[in-house]
Write a structure and sequence with these properties.
373 residues, alpha/beta, Rossmann fold, 2 domains, seven-stranded mixed sheet, six-stranded mixed sheet, 15 strands, 21% strand, elongated, ABC transporter substrate-binding protein, Peripla_BP_I, signal
Length: 373
């Protein structure tokens, strides 16, 4: 018998030994762990990791066996092709529960692969198309583009009393989706949308499109895109003497935006993020303290939602006394889970029945909540 066969046999015996005491449940995570958005991917992954560690510290029992949770994390690079490959990898590893993907452009194609394999997904991807596919095991654990874009437009009209705005989107599924929803609501609220320009999620020079918008004397520019582009956009607006506010969705509601944008990112930048204000949520401060103690940094935009999604899976497993994804999905669909950021209960599409949206601006490089809509 070859050495590697002996090693494999011993590994199997070891696994069987662990299996005799505990049932291993793999929790998959898919997100951008490399590239410009890695700060978000790692923060989200840490939300899952914290939940997994807590579940293993106080093990729960299903069908008479203690569960041992294992985190399997894949880097989808925020790229649709890489996301589908990451999905296949997790499926091949026998993962039945996934938290992610983060990007709408990744989540939409990857969700097809997960659905065919009977894998449950809890995603923060905001494009409405994600839940319009009709998959039973798919849950959006935050507000959608229609809520994020709409609430930002209402805030611009009602609170900021703006009259003329423009839109720039990065042509990603997320950026395009949130920008269109903002534009639709802005027009409905009586705002003039003086221009709609396009860029990409790899661009860093926005001078020509900003110069074009400067001539239109807009009071605000809504950017459908991510912080690595939003921050240089804010800097270039300042350099060009454009005094308009920069508005955006959840993906610019991050400390990275302040870090990359420096003094160009302050009260002039406003963004909308799904969920109530964490500091005002009953268990929000306790979660923030736990997260900081474990990872030596504050949780960013979605760490709490990823933590909640993992705990929601575990609670549904306990409730059904089963690890069958179909039974677990049915329990999640029918019930409600009270998490850190609020109560998760879903409509027939897998969208949250109620998802408050918080509007932020920036102080000292950090997003600061203003109000919840």
């Amino acid at each position: 018998m070859k050495l590697k066969h002996i090693a494999a046999a011993l590994a199997l015996l070891g696994a069987a030994g662990a299996q005799a005491q505990d049932t291993v449940v793999k929790i998959g995570h898919s997100g951008p762990l490399s590239g410009a958005q890695a700060f978000s991917g790692k923060d989200n992954e840490n939300g899952v990791r914290l939940a997994v560690e807590e579940l293993n510290a106080k093990p729960i029992t299903v069908a008479g066996k203690k569960l041992k949770f294992e985190l399997q994390s894949e880097d989808d690079q925020g790229d649709p092709k890489a996301g589908v490959a990451a999905a296949q990898k997790l499926i091949d590893q026998g993962v039945k529960y996934v938290v992610g993907p983060y990007n709408s452009g990744v989540a939409i194609p990857a969700s097809r692969a997960y659905n065919e394999a009977g894998v449950l997904i809890a995603s923060v991807a905001t494009n409405p198309k994600l839940t319009q596919q009709g998959y039973k095991g798919l849950f959006r654990v935050n507000a959608s583009d229609s809520q994020l874009g709409t609430k930002m437009a209402l805030y611009a009209a009602n609170e900021l009393k703006l009259k003329t705005v423009a839109v720039i989107d990065d042509r990603t599924a997320f950026g395009q989706g949130v920008a269109e929803e903002f534009k639709k609501q802005a027009k409905a609220a009586g705002l003039t949308v003086a221009g709609h320009e396009f860029t990409t999620d790899k661009a860093f020079d926005f001078t020509s499109i900003l110069t074009k918008l400067k001539t239109k004397k807009v009071e605000a520019i809504f950017f459908g895109g991510y912080a690595p582009q939003g921050a240089p956009m804010a800097r270039q607006m300042k350099q060009l003497g454009i005094n308009a506010k920069l508005l955006g969705g959840d993906t610019i509601c991050t400390a990275e935006m302040g870090k990359l944008g420096g003094d160009a990112v302050g009260e002039n930048v406003l963004c909308s993020q799904g969920g109530a204000i964490l500091d005002k949520a009953a268990s929000g401060p306790a979660f923030k303290a736990k997260f900081k103690a474990r990872f030596k940094q504050e949780p960013d935009v979605y760490a709490a939602a990823y933590y909640d999604a993992t705990m929601m899976y575990a609670q549904a497993m306990q409730k059904t006394n089963s690890l069958d994804p179909q039974k677990v999905a049915a329990a999640i669909s029918a019930g409600a889970y009270k998490g850190v950021t609020g109560t998760y209960s879903f409509d027939e599409r897998g969208d949250m029945k109620q998802s408050p949206v918080t509007i932020f601006n920036f102080k000292g490089g950090q997003p600061v909540p203003l109000t919840t809509y």
